[in-house]
């Protein structure tokens, strides 16, 4: 389903981003930046200046090699995406005639308390999952990085949750946290504590969804941090130790500053994927009741924005309104990503 | 660079073909003529008796029925399939909760009255046929089954609480919702861990089904703020204030139904299968009585012929054969599909006793109810609007929201949904 971080931008982004400082040459005659494959053979600079038409002709095998992805991308991602822009200005039930309604869907959206509630739910679940997830991932990565034995085992173990079927995990969590007969409540009762109605209280519902996401993606982020850690030269650590720095000091003065581009990457990816939580509440509360499907559980506490979008599009068949929801949501994600980016960037310049 | 232009073109065509194949997989044959012998037939698991469908393939030996049991979200897949004649089925199931939303696009389906359904109509329940009839009189679906509702109760628990146990007596004594709730209070007083109902949404949905008006009227006007809905709401909230509501809104229902947390259960005939699946250990302890407040219906599907159907005459023969009273009786035995043809109610498959209900002949409750269900106009946006009310009822149970505040929010949200769907 949707929330696999693997679908995000390629992980080359932050390591070659502006944060690391230019290690390569700025290459002045190289204007058409992204996607241009000829960088390595630049020394023959006379050839590269022959204009774009010749460039494509010259490098066609490379373009051909990358074309299947872009073809599939255009058919299955780009076209549907652009089509939703069109849909957001229409009223359409899926099979009948479309009717142009201007900005009406967005006006409805502005007045819809359920949409705003779904945004609140999404943000709360995102904060509850992302913050502990990234902290724990960093901690795990540092721990695994310092082990000498079974490193392969630890890495595989960390990665397994992220490739486990989300639906299976959701069903499992549903059973563990079940109100009356769940494992956790059985343990609580065994300790003579009162059971917690996990699946009906508006806060515990969010907590369960956040716990599920944390469980699934902590290991994945830890692996990325681990890769970053191994790129830090060991001389730096040796030097720090010689100067008498303790483990905590080393973590905060060497590891975290040098890991900053990687942290930025994980923050952006977790923002984009964490805000798109859909499968988790859909499976946990998507009871197959014909009267009220995909409502997001008791009190609609698990109604995330994408679940609300799904409900409008595929239960109510209000495709125009659903398109307006996703575009409004897209703008919000963009805003949060920019804020994140600036936050992490600014710290970069300080030392 | 020894690749020639020709080989480049070859490679490009190959790439495009691969992409095309990926996109087109699942497409089928689309013949334009109206007398094809190949019929694509879509339904969902449990939507029809598989045995009857298998027999239909044998019975119509001159035709080829290509059946597909469609999993997942059936309505969405059907909407996508109907986009082109090549991908559309020739015969398809339509779920009861979706039928109203297809009516504004009745022209996408064949009017079954033009194929002779009007002559068969007297044999089938008129209120059910009305659900599949558009406002200009087109019949787009032939009814598979219905969901006449009743009150399921635990005879053993009723006995312990000193309540009547005989189905006829229970039906007579608990004939109104207030009588029913009074019995619930007694039941809960005698057995502290036993509640009357699983959640208040179920009472609300039953009461809406008992009326002749729903959330939107024939003139496409929102009437979800009027007295008939308000009454259903106040009645539904009563068991909550009386503390005889188990407030179950999740999968713990499965356990609750088996361990005596629920003393009664209100639901459609097909719900009996849910109970016996979830609580096989309670076999023989359940009985069925009439629904308090009068008959109601929940669910029940249709078979329809999309306008692109390759052979309407033959397809209509197939669906009327599958849904003949005799075959409907078999559907009841195989898949708990309650027949839409009253003639089937007299067949042995239905008149026998049900061991799960202690040998009770449940048709004596469901049969008369089925024929007395009130016909109500269900607007295309009805299900979408009603969701607001169910969400607010759940909010009362989950968050302890004040019922009056919940009512105000339900009405204002219901109005908004209606407005978005083009209701005045």
UniProtKB/TrEMBL annotation, chain A:
TM ranges: 63-89, 123-144, 156-177, 207-229, 250-272, 319-341
Membrane topology classification: Multi-pass membrane protein
One Gene Ontology term, aspect cellular component: plasma membrane
Renumbered residue ranges of the record's region Disordered: 1-44
One Pfam family linked to the record: BPD_transp_1
Subcellular location: Cell membrane
ABC transmembrane type-1 domain ranges (all copies): 119-340
Broad class of where this protein is predominantly found: membrane
Keywords recorded for this protein, A-Z: Cell membrane, Membrane, Transmembrane, Transmembrane helix, Transport
Protein name according to UniProt: Sugar ABC transporter permease
Organism listed in the record: Streptomyces spongiae
TrEMBL record, chain B:
Provenance organism: Streptomyces spongiae
UniProt-listed SUPFAM superfamilies: Periplasmic binding protein-like II
Biased composition (Polar residues): 413-424
PROSITE patterns per the UniProt record, alphabetical: PROKAR_LIPOPROTEIN, TAT
Protein name (record): Extracellular solute-binding protein
PANTHER family per UniProt: ARABINOSE-BINDING PROTEIN-RELATED, SUGAR BINDING SECRETED PROTEIN
Region entry Disordered, spans: 402-424
A Pfam family annotated for this UniProt entry: SBP_bac_8
